[in-house]
Amino acid sequence: MIIDTLANLEFYKGLNEQLYKGLKFLKETDVAALPVGRYEIDGDTVFALVQAYETHLPEECRWEAHYKYTDIQYVVEGSERMGWKTLDGVVKAEDCPEDDVYFFESDGDHFVLHAGQFAVFTPQDAHRPGMAVDGPAPIKKIVVKVAM
User: What angle do CA 116, 119, 77 make, to 5 degrees?
Assistant: First the structure.
């Protein structure tokens, strides 16, 4: 898992070409003006999902992981609490391979992402997005999906 801001974009240039494409899209696009929806960056290899919703109470949020996509979760407006943990010892509660996701019950570490920050979750990272910081509040977030 990585937590950072787009000010450090060039650091990621040599790490992974597809990951860099996703981060570059976030930096070079007026993301605040994008309406909710899907935006292709490089076909199904790299694409962005613009989301706008109210954050939820922790008990309403599920732990998840993905099979083939890495998530870049970038907060455009608002703040969101997220969870992270390794996949060691997790037992799937629900499996949706056709949607590249599975869910499970777990405990893990939590942190807050504020506007202008992103977190990267690889298929080896469990994550729990969508949690409210102090109480449910509106958020605009972009999840860039990067095939690994």
Answer: 30
Note the helical H segments in the chain: 17-28
The dihedral sign for the CA sequence 16, 18, 20, 26:
negative
Number of C-alpha atoms within 13 angstroms, CB side, residue 125? 19
Topology (CATH level 3) of domain 2-147: Jelly Rolls (2.60.120)
pTM greater than the 0.85 cutoff: yes
Domain positions in the chain are 2-147
Closest C-alpha to 31, from 53, 6, 55, 3: 6
pLDDT at res. 61: 96
| Blockwise average pLDDT, block size 10, the chain, 148 residues | 97 95 98 98 98 97 97 98 93 94 93 98 96 97 97
Q: CA 49, CA 140: separation in Å to the nearest integer? A: 11
